[in-house]
Fold:
Amino acid sequence: MKEIYVFTYGTLKKGFSNNHFLNDAIFISNAITCDNYQMYPCSNKNFPFLIKSENVQQIKGEVFKTNSKKVLDDLDYLENYPNLYLKEFIKVKLENNSIVEALVYFKNEKSYLNAVDYSMPINEWNDNYKNSFLI
Structure:
């Protein structure tokens, strides 16, 4: 399998509760999306949703690299793909200003419609949420 980049923006980031899913991936850089999206916490504030249809702001996150089918399968399981999240490649800008195509999980906007707390738009999942969700 060829190596792919994965853009993480929530509990998969370093130091957060689900980062262990990326133990066999390599951290590359902090990053920011090239295009605008919107991010909201879920209704119980345990993890974020990235909303593709709302072109509001760039989203901060981290990029990892993997060539492991197991890592990607585990991410699909964690993200409840394709029911809760959908995935696609987007352009993200790394700290060294290079741009890479990275896999990202967007909220499936046709399912679990009441799962999003639309009252709290954010552009970065931070330490306020660090230990709130663990699988």
